[in-house]
Write a structure and sequence with these properties.
241 residues; alpha/beta; Nucleotidyltransferase, domain 5; seven-stranded mixed beta sheet; two-stranded antiparallel ribbon; 9 helices; 9 strands; 20% strand
């Protein structure tokens, strides 16, 4: 990038801030390096977790983001969004995490979409939720929510772009997690890793374990604040409604 005479310093600095870790090494430095180890290596509880008393008194918007599961975990994250120094910051206020079915509890009764709807309504209380972001593959839940006049936005589930966005928001201290309300999300940060077998085939791919709350977080950022492909720049119009 530094060898491109058509790019001024301001443009180059903007590009450099968009990528972190392995993506910075590849797209900015031009190095081909393997994606390995913990994916969100820059997550730090001291930097990114807050106590309840540190929650802002007001947000610009409330969103809920969801990763769907019947036998796998079903997740809702309640998120407050507000602009700080003209940049969106995300507060993850609390989580709903139904663990589905485990090897130890194969005979347990599974929750259904109707129960998830009831749990969702209890989860949000009387808050005005601008949109609920749901993975587009969860068609039954999407349709049920729409039937009950819940404003749904289907998620942009681009995996690598979304991971890069989460890394960037973490690097810029724009994600704030209420620690006592989000134990499963915090746990997943420490165990979400790259798939080395996929790397042997030239693929960047996370292992599909310990990822349900993190998938919900990725859906939120990739859906509302995508990096534009043409020219590679951040969406500047606030929330991508």
């Amino acid at each position: 990038m530094d060898d491109n005479p058509s790019l001024d310093e301001e443009t180059k600095n903007r590009y450099k801030k968009m990528f972190v870790g392995v993506f910075y090494q590849r797209f900015i430095l031009g190095l081909w390096v393997l994606a390995e180890g913990i994916i969100y290596h820059n997550f730090d509880k001291e930097r990114h977790c807050i106590n309840k008393e540190d929650i802002p008194s007001k947000f610009d918007y409330y969103y809920v983001t969801s990763d769907y599961g019947i036998t796998n975990p079903q997740v809702f994250l309640l998120c407050g969004i507000k602009m700080v120094n003209k940049k969106p910051h995300i507060w993850i206020l609390k989580e709903y995490y139904n663990k589905g079915i485990s090897e130890k509890k194969k005979k347990q009764k599974l929750k259904t979409d109707i129960i998830f709807l009831k749990d969702y309504l209890k989860f949000i209380g009387d808050l005005d939720i601008k949109k609920t972001i749901i993975d587009p593959s969860a068609t039954s839940l999407i349709n049920l929510f729409k039937q009950h006049d819940i404003k749904v936005k289907e998620a942009d589930n681009a995996v690598i772009d979304g991971i890069n966005l989460v890394l960037s928001f973490l690097d810029q201290n724009r994600i704030h997690i209420v620690e006592e309300n989000c134990p499963e999300l915090i746990r997943e940060f420490a165990s979400y890793i790259w798939d080395m077998k996929a790397q042997e085939k030239g693929e960047d791919k996370p292992i599909k374990l310990n990822d349900h709350a993190l998938d919900a977080l990725r859906y939120l950022l990739q859906t509302l604040f995508p990096i534009k492909k043409k020219g590679v720049y951040f969406y500047k119009g606030g929330v991508n409604k």
